[in-house]
Prior knowledge:
Layout: E1 4-17, E2 20-34, E3 39-43, H1 50-58, E4 65-70, E5 73-74, H2 80-83, E6 85-88, H3 100-110, H4 117-128, H5 133-136, H6 145-157, E7 163-167, H7 175-191, E8 195-200, H8 203-209, E9 212-217, E10 220-225, H9 227-232, H10 237-242, E11 249-256, E12 259-262, E13 266-269, E14 279-284, E15 289-306, E16 311-318, E17 321-328, E18 338-343, E19 349-352
Helix pairs in contact: 3-6
The structure holds adenosine-5'-triphosphate.
Adenosine-5'-triphosphate binds next to strand 2 and helix 1.
Amino acid sequence: MTAIGLEHVTKRFEHIIGADERAITAVNDVSLRITSGDVLAILGPSGCGKSTLLRLVAGIFKPDEGQVFYDDQDLQDIPLRDRGVGMVFQEGALIPHWESRRSVAFFLALRKREQEVPGRLAQISRITGFGLDTLLERRPGQLSGGEQQRVSIARALARDMRVLLFDEPFANLDAKYRGEARVELKRLLNAFPVTSIYVTHDQVEAIALAHRIAIMRDGRLEQVGTYQQLYSNPVNLFVATFIGTPIMNLFPGRIENGLWYGENFGGYAVRKDLPDGTHVTAGVRPEYIHLAQEGTYGVVEQKIPLFAERRQVITVHLAGERWSLIAPLEQPVEVGSTIQCALNPQGLLYFDTLTGQRIG
Ligand code: ATP
């Protein structure tokens, strides 16, 4: 197995817009280490550079600055045939006029090791729990999107890989098949541990499959950590609001007499070194707000039941602010009614309003 390293990697693209030529920095000074055998998910909004980062790790793009390492060797110094990169894309990327078996066997056949193919396929079939055999006689055009992805993953696993890279492999599948495909892939990654990067828009997928998650914005890495670390200890407002559903409640406020005050509540100590007048945004996750006998009055705008969790997400309009909170599903709450809610100050996180950086 192989550790992946990136050191100060930057990649720019030239875009011609009318008569202008403009450089876009798709990946900007990214440094990162993925331990051998770990799965790292890359999450971020559209256009933030996720796919470009993946292609840099695959060696499809060469960095303008910085280096990509497999173990301690610069990727540029590793001959193509020794790189051992498996990639699974959104589209499956199977060769249209080949039967799937030929696609899956291709790399081993190239190395005159075709005899290993049946054993590997049987193993993959057993672990995923679906009969790969029935798919292998067909061409991609005769397979559904989900089936094509299964063949693509089998193809990646049927060869000797050092790294396995996924670019939103299940994005085109509907919710039911996404769930199943995720479980199968998790089983495969447990059975064939391989250092992997998994690009996705889907937090649930990232949590299910990855050991750590990297959050990207505008070509930069904002934070890398376990989901729990990103959720409880975000480094800035971007990560705080990108991770977690429903999203964190935010309250604008200021420091007065050394304490934080918002529009409707306050008096909390943040940090001793902040001068009075500093603009500070407080954030609190919905689970730190609850319905209370003696709390602040608000009008219920919306309630969304989460049946599987026996909870409901309630949105309350309260003196010009909107609060999201979580209550037990059994608690009777009517849209349009007035309720009282209270906040547990232990859940408050503080951010510099101007820079978005976490300050307490
Ligand atoms: P999405 O989630 O929408 O797939 P992404 O996070 O994967 O987006 P990238 O595809 O890496 O983002 O694109 C990052 C930036 O680089 C975008 O501004 C994009 O337009 C630009 N870009 C990506 N590939 C190329 C290319 N081959 N030529 C020129 N510009 C590109």
